[in-house]
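Bug #77: duplicate submission created two jobs. Keeping one. Sequence:
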Amino acid sequence: QVQLVESGGDLVQPGGSLRLSCTTSGINFNLYTMGWYRQVPGNQRELVTRILSTGSTNTANSVKGRFTISRDFAKNTVYLQMNSLQPEDTALYLCNAIETLSRQNYWGQGTHVTVSS
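Kept job's structure:
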């Protein structure tokens, strides 16, 4: 059974930092591109950043320079370090896994990030 479990979401003040984690099981982590998306009610889900198994990354312009994705192959976990958080970063953050060849696609349940004073 495939599971993607996110954690680390919280309420934080503007300018603060958080680190999200997404721990996977049931997949060959080495073969998957891992991504973080976010969604605000009423809006489309948007890509925040993703990391290939090679280590290459793609990051949305809105978070570039503030957010960093990384992955730990030993722990089958992907991280999202978020710095200089702003109220517009408030969203449900979801972890995504896409297998490189088959494009098999999995989602986690998400973790809430709220940026407010």
